[in-house]
Amino acid sequence: MFLIFLLSLITRVIMFSSARHINFLRQTITTLCRNNSTLVIAEHNNQKLIPSTLNTITAAISLGEVTCLVAGTQCKQVAAEVAKVKGVKKVILADNEVYTGFLPEALTPLLLAAQNQFKFSHIVAPATAFGKGLAPRLAAKLDVSPISDIIGIKDKDTFVRTIYAGNAIQTLKSKDNVKVITVRGTAFEAAGHEGGDGTVEDAPSCDVKNDLSQFIGQELSKSDRPELTSASTVISGGRGMKNGDNFKLLYDLADKMGAAVGASRAAVDAGFVPNDMQVGQTGKIVAPDLYIAVGISGAIQHLAGMKDSKVIVAINKDPEAPIFQVADYGIVQDLFKAVPEMTDLVDKN
Length: 349
Hints:
Elements: H1 2-16, H2 19-34, E1 37-41, H3 52-61, E2 65-72, H4 76-83, E3 88-95, H5 104-118, E4 122-126, H6 129-142, E5 147-153, E6 158-163, E7 168-173, E8 179-183, E9 199-202, E10 233-237, H7 248-257, E11 260-263, H8 265-269, E12 290-294, H9 300-306, E13 311-315, E14 329-331, H10 335-348
Parallel strand pairs: 1-2, 1-4, 2-3, 3-9, 4-8, 5-8, 10-11, 10-12, 12-13, 13-14
Antiparallel strand pairs: 5-6, 6-7
Helix pairs in contact: 5-6, 7-10
């Protein structure tokens, strides 16, 4: 009945209306046909899904029917994993060597081809280094404004996000036909690994040649500890650690607690630890059940990356350190005395 009504309306408009009215009807029909379908760009390592994608899927479910794009090299098992995620209706798979390294210059033409075919109303990615590198480029190609780091969704057009290193909240409404969004994973629950019955199909064909950038290689640190962004307990060290060797105090405690180890930007900039350990606005965003900040003063940049943690414990010998303003528990003591004592207590219990 709706289709008959729509065809009748089109006929009448063509017969009696002006070009302006015809253009308005065309835009209305395009909006109706799009029907709030959402594309989630899955982040993975070609073997398994990165956990932040599950949080992104939860956000996307409130925006409309969810399709996930899995692009990479030899990543069919990831597509099968995503298809089982609760709430995912369809997975489009692009398996090609050109996507090695997940370079934005290679992925953007694929996303444009997918958008051209499926006409998504929203394209969503995790607010990670991967998503933040890809979303602005895609938005520019689509001639829309990207919406970054959202922490809430009011309706299909209205979003809540953090600005000024997480120190202020902004509500904005987008009038773009397609919204390109990055989602702060800590603001949404993870979607269930099981319960979905999505289908898997090949992604639209496109020119996959990439002459703009080249993936040379990567060096990944290996650890038996949990991954920083998915750990239930995180212990981070700051400038107060004095040097990289002293991080062994945190590693020993973390191993006994089954925790991940992070660091402040000051510790990373000082060369104490690698960049992939940085927690903060320009590092990794974490929200564990327990966050222990050791020798960290509490700069705004760092707080933006961990203040959503369920319980925050701060250890600092300076009672005026800003970190104590967000901490649930504070220990005013020299970390070189406090941390070994904590390690001994954990070992005994």
